[in-house]
Amino acid sequence: MADSKAQIKTAPIKWAQRSDSLYVTIALQDVTEEKIDLTDQKLEFQGKSDGKIYALNIEFFKPVDAKGSTYNVLPRSVQMHVLKAKSKDGDDDDDDDEFWPRLLKDKALEKNQVTVDWNRYVDEDEEEDAGGFDLSALEGGRGMGGMPGMEGMGGMGGMGGMGGMGGDMNMEALMKQMGDMGAMGGDEPGMDGDDDSDDDSLPDLEDA
Hints:
By secondary structure, the protein is α+β, with helices and mostly antiparallel strands. The protein has 5 helices and 10 strands, in the order αββββββββαβαβαα. The strands form 2 sheets. Strands 9-2-3-8-7-10 form a 6-stranded mixed β-sheet. Strands 1-6-5-4 form a 4-stranded mixed β-sheet. The longest helix has 17 residues, at 167-183. The relative contact order is 0.15. Residues 146-169 and 186-199 have low confidence and may be disordered.
């Protein structure tokens, strides 16, 4: 087992921020078998790249909003848009919407494991002019938070807005929606023709 652990390499990570969010990039190409678990405090990652196993286990400088965050596995990297957590009391404290001095809680680990994503970096004073992150690379990505081991489910993250509805309720709603669409089928061009052609074929079968 010691040999197996020794073969796991630390995944390189870079980051940039805005006052309300983080853009985290795991700089590995062609990642497969990825396992990503984001909580409000930590990010855990493991995956294969170029035949090697890489892992990452970091604790953020401050809490984040895991449920509102997304990620996407791209050919050249794994990219994540992580929302900073808001204070639960709803007060407009200075702690909200502020720039962090670093990504990780552990300053020593930050120096060894994290670099700045200069392509996305903006100074705090320049944020208003620079605007938010370009999230086009995350289109079709996956939601995170509370779903470890579900990475292979693809777009499940997009259902986060449905709150506490379980899988059965989601399916029931989907079937109802499909049923409603089916009831409208007669109004669509070509639908009546298909039904008539099926009816016309029945007498031919009986004659035969």
